[in-house]
UniProtKB/TrEMBL annotation:
Catalytic reactions on record: a 1,2-diacyl-sn-glycero-3-phospho-(1D-myo-inositol-4,5-bisphosphate) + H2O = 1D-myo-inositol 1,4,5-trisphosphate + a 1,2-diacyl-sn-glycerol + H(+)
GO biological process, one term: lipid catabolic process
Domain C2: 675-762
PI-PLC Y-box domain sequence ranges: 560-678
Catalytic class of the enzyme: hydrolase
Cofactor or coenzyme needed: Ca(2+)
Annotated GO CC locations: cytoplasm
All residue ranges annotated as the PH domain in the record: 107-140
Major localization class: cytoplasm
Coiled-coil region list: none
Protein name: Phosphoinositide phospholipase C
């Protein structure tokens, strides 16, 4: 097996923690601790904070100590920082509300794309360190698809059990079980609940035991409710079970067979039971028997396990596991020894690793590893593309009005949005610079209610994260509205803060082509207008303007102008004029409406846009009507080779999801090499007429889901989910498709769709 792939698959916790240390970290966060909360308005509050039982959110008690509130969800946390690093802390320092001698007690939890922060002061440095380390562990755990068996059973399930036990009796009665099913996002009728309850309830010594489930019985109950027939079928397919043996096993869960599941297109319901058999007469393979070690039987009353089932053959031997990996997961070089190590890592039962066998839970944990995500893990974890071509040959992850936290017309401007963008792989950020008081340039959105911030605060924030995620060049797109004097201040700030990382002269004396990302590693580039003194530029806020420039600056300071080297913004007349008269160092900015006009032109004139983007850096940004910070569809412009499709990173919309997915390729470095058909000197590619090319057909199968949230992401929501899955493909117009599975009624716990769709990509 490939060494790098193997290392990722067998990777140890990056924090190097044992299971006991992990438990201790999380347990400390569950102990209620008083912190002093500092708000931006200067007010402070003593609040009790703690991690909730399900370990997915930080809660706090209000001043009455009776009211409980959610501070933030773990999955929404972007960063945890020590010291006075956020805007709130810096504001308090400036106004003397806090002093530097408290810095060792301060920390901040940044969440919701770094748009908000929870700024807390601890009683001791030890408590602060415990919370920072515990939160960082939880954040890492949530960002990974892998959960240990312990986290699922002894933590999450126990929290469910405790939450459902309203009378604190240590047992669950039928009424509490109904409430639990509601929280689990699944609806069963009384007959189904009774049957599950009775199957799990094995203590029958007295009346109370018949009426209640203890913790061990609750594990069995959960096993019945959340069983995974789709995984069981995989096991049976490779362990030599016959269709009758599979049917007998599934019959043990006959209640589940009455639940509504979606059927695959074109298949009758009973076709699913047979679909996993290669042949109805298939004989048991020679490797179907367990290895020489005897499979130990354990007392499930003393050691409840989701892995143990009522069917003795519900597992794969190490040889059968190898066959599954080679045929289904295409791990062709995996050895028996490799499989044994994988079983030891992923199989949660005590007897599985000893006997070298993997069951349902081990297989589930294994398949949830990041290595088996839809995105090719090898391409997501390393830079593999040629990074030595001119920078015009790459798509670049680009942000629009990066300083804005909310909408385009109101709210605070903050450096935290730059940190968020850079930490997610953005390589081109933007700032609109104006004259500020005391000779300090400021950044804000003119003619709006946005609150300005000083330029140097933004530059300091950028410097801390500029190359934390990617070593490739970072563009600062500066819309310069400053006076001659404050342009000089801007230049001094840039040189002082970025030092030798700021590109201040060409790499070569002769510039007949732009340098490559590799040439510009760890360099900060300024993209702005560099006009001769006295030159009048177009107004970017005017509807008549085609480019993004500064409105009528009096002159350009030579110290600032000298920093604009490989991305000099110039006015746009037409594509032919630009290609014939402008140099490769000249860059064009288009408002989305102008870019749309160019690509919607009649054939073949629309192909001129591809010619333009092959020679010049082109940036397309959202129009002024998008005051709510909605985004353009970047795919529209990528299809024509536009390098910088600028998006509002503060939005969690479809365009940003597409951006994150697109730039997760090539190691997430923020640069993607354009496809070959956009790099040719004589391109034959036409985004409007691609059907002439031979299509590639993809088959996508949506099998199942588990533990899906309710629509409003609130467990107490009165509506049980009817989940369905939408599959969308993005690209040129002919590639764009949308498919939707049938909905599964009243089952967000373990819906099964088994839905196949076929997609043609040109």
């Amino acid at each position: 097996m490939d060494k790098t792939k193997w290392q990722r698959l067998m990777s140890i916790d990056p924090l190097g923690l044992t299971e006991l240390q992990k438990r201790n970290l999380v347990d400390r966060l569950k102990r209620r601790v008083t912190f002093i909360k500092h708000k931006s308005n200067g007010r402070t509050y003593a609040r009790i904070y703690y991690l909730n039982l399900s370990e997915d959110a930080i809660h706090y008690q209000g001043s009455s100590h009776r009211s409980k509130h959610e501070a933030c969800k773990i999955n929404d946390i972007n960063q945890v920082r020590s010291g006075f690093t956020t805007t709130v802390w810096k504001k308090h320092l400036r106004k003397g509300r806090i002093t530097n001698d408290k810095i060792h007690l301060a920390f901040s939890i940044l969440y919701d794309n770094n748009r908000h922060s929870l700024d807390l002061l601890a009683d001791s440095e030890e408590i602060r360190s415990q919370w920072i380390q515990g939160l960082e562990y939880l954040i890492g755990r949530y960002r990974s698809h892998v959960r240990s068996h312990y986290e699922i059973t002894d933590r999450w399930l126990w929290s469910l059990y405790s939450e459902a036990d309203h009378d604190h009796s240590g047992h669950l009665n039928r009424r509490e079980v109904r409430r639990l099913l509601f929280l689990l996002n699944i609806e069963l009728d009384e007959r189904e609940i009774d049957q599950y309850f009775n199957q799990a309830n094995i203590r029958r010594d007295n009346y109370d035991e018949l009426r209640n489930l203890d913790k061990d019985e609750f594990i069995s109950f959960y096993k019945f409710v959340s069983y995974r027939p789709e995984l069981i079928k995989i096991l049976c397919q490779y362990n030599g079970s016959t269709p009758k043996q599979l049917a007998d096993f599934l019959a043990k869960y006959e209640v589940l067979s009455t639940l509504s599941h979606a059927n695959p297109l074109g298949q009758p319901p009973d076709a699913l039971a047979n679909s996993c058999w290669k042949s109805s007469s298939k004989s048991q393979p020679s490797n179907a028997q367990p290895r020489s070690k005897a499979r130990k039987k354990t007392d499930t009353r003393r050691s409840p396990s989701l892995t143990k089932t009522v069917h003795d053959n519900n597992y794969l031997t190490v040889e059968q596991f190898q066959e599954f990996l080679q045929k289904e997961q295409h791990m062709r070089d995996v050895t028996i020894e490799d499989c044994s190590k994988l079983i030891a890592k992923f199989e949660p039962s005590d007897e599985g690793p000893t006997c070298e066998e993997i069951g349902v839970d081990g297989l589930r944990l294994f398949l949830l590893h990041d290595e088996f995500c839809l995105m090719n893990a090898d391409k997501a974890h390393r830079v593999y593309q040629d990074m030595t071509r001119p920078i015009t040959d790459y798509f670049i992850a680009t942000s629009h009005n990066t300083y804005i936290r909310d909408s385009q017309v109101y709210g605070d401007c903050t450096p935290e949005t730059y940190i968020h963008a850079l930490r997610t792989g953005c390589r081109a950020v933007e700032m609109d610079c104006y004259d500020g008081e005391d000779g300090e340039p400021i950044v804000y959105h003119a003619n709006t209610w946005t609150k300005a911030i000083t330029l140097h605060e933004i530059l300091f924030a950028i410097e801390t994260q500029a190359f934390a995620v990617s070593p490739y060049p970072l563009f600062l797109n500066i819309e310069n509205h400053c006076s001659y004097e404050q342009q000089g201040v801007m230049a001094r700030h840039l040189k002082r803060i970025f030092k030798d990382r700021l590109l201040n002269e060409p790499l070569r004396s002769k510039v007949d082509r732009l340098p490559s990302p590799e040439d510009l590693k760890y360099k900060v580039l300024i993209r702005s207008r560099r006009s001769p003194k006295g030159k009048v530029a177009a107004d970017p806020k005017s509807n008549r303007s085609d480019d993004e420039t500064e409105p009528n600056p009096k002159s350009y300071h030579p110290e600032f102008a000298k920093l604009i080297i490989y991305a000099q913004i110039v006015s746009f007349t037409n594509i032919e004029h630009t290609i014939s008269t402008q140099k490769c160092i000249h860059s064009i900015s288009f408002k989305e409406s102008k870019a749309d006009d160019l690509i919607e032109a009649d054939s073949p004139e629309h192909l001129d846009m591809i010619k333009l983007t092959s020679k010049h850096l082109v940036r397309v940004y959202p129009g002024t009507k998008r005051q709510n910070s909605s985004n353009i569809n970047p795919m529209t412009y990528w299809a024509y080779g536009v390098q910088m499709a600028a998006l509002n990173y503060q939005k969690n919309d479809e365009s940003m999801c597409l951006q994150y997915g697109f730039f997760s390729d090539n190691g997430g470095c923020g640069y993607l090499l354009k496809p070959s058909f956009l790099l040719s000197d004589n391109p034959t590619f036409d985004p409007k007429n691609a059907v002439q090319r031979k299509a590639k057909r993809f088959t996508i199968q949506v099998i199942s889901g588990q533990h899906l949230p309710k629509e409003k992401n609130a467990p107490s929501d009165s509506d049980i989910s009817d989940p369905y899955v939408e599959i969308s493909t993005y690209g040129i117009e002919v590639d764009s498709t949308k498919h939707r599975t049938p909905a599964v009624r009243n089952n967000g716990l373990n819906p099964i769709w088994n839905y196949k769709c076929h997609v043609d990509i040109y």
